[in-house]
């Protein structure tokens, strides 16, 4: 099942689109993958189609995006649950990001971890970019496994 689409219009009038897709064809049977596409014709076609941009066999979902107008850079973000604790059911999710340039033909080489919350899970994340290209992130820690209250985090990161 495809879900959580995010679309951004770049300064060329093209569309960047990301979404996640749930699957049971992975270890543990509880996976999701993030897909990316770019359209230069208003969504009538998607270049070479949609490509998977998240790691294999890791539940990656709940996409968000931001566009850096000055650097013509599209950022894709999602929850990465590589540390999922199956014994407690705690996803222990962190936020990762990857950027795309040149109308999606160039992608960053590695995933960038925006958060590293240990055994906590991130929740309700959102992003923007400043005029200088700095990426700003905000999220809550989610202590759904405990009685602790949520706490908000803010991060100003990479340009």
Give a count of the beta strands, DSSP E runs of length 2 or more. 12
CATH architecture: 6 Propeller
Tell me about the largest β-sheet.
5 strands, antiparallel
- At the first level of CATH, what is the class? Mainly Beta
Count of helix runs: 0
Write the element-wise H/E pattern from the N-terminal end onward: EEEEEEEEEEEE
| Helix fraction by DSSP (H/I, runs of at least 4) | under 10%
Distance between the termini: 34 Å
What is the alpha-carbon Rg in Å? Answer: 16 Å
Do you know the CATH topology? Neuraminidase
Estimated share of beta-strand residues: over 45%
Outline: globular
What does the average pLDDT come to?
A: 84
Number of domains: 1
Residue windows where pLDDT falls under 50 for at least 5 positions: none
The secondary-structure class comes to mainly beta
Plain-language structure description:
With 159 residues, this protein is mainly β. It has a single domain, classed as 6 Propeller (Neuraminidase), CATH 2.120.10.10. Helices cover 0% and strands 50% of the residues. The chain is built from no helices and twelve strands. The chain has strands at residues 2-9, 15-23, 31-39, 51-52, 60-68, 73-80, 94-101, 106-107, 112-113, 121-129, 135-142, 151-156. The strands form three sheets. Strands 5, 6, 7, 8 and 9 form a five-stranded antiparallel sheet that branches. It is globular, with a radius of gyration of 16 Å. The model has no long low-confidence stretch (mean pLDDT 84).
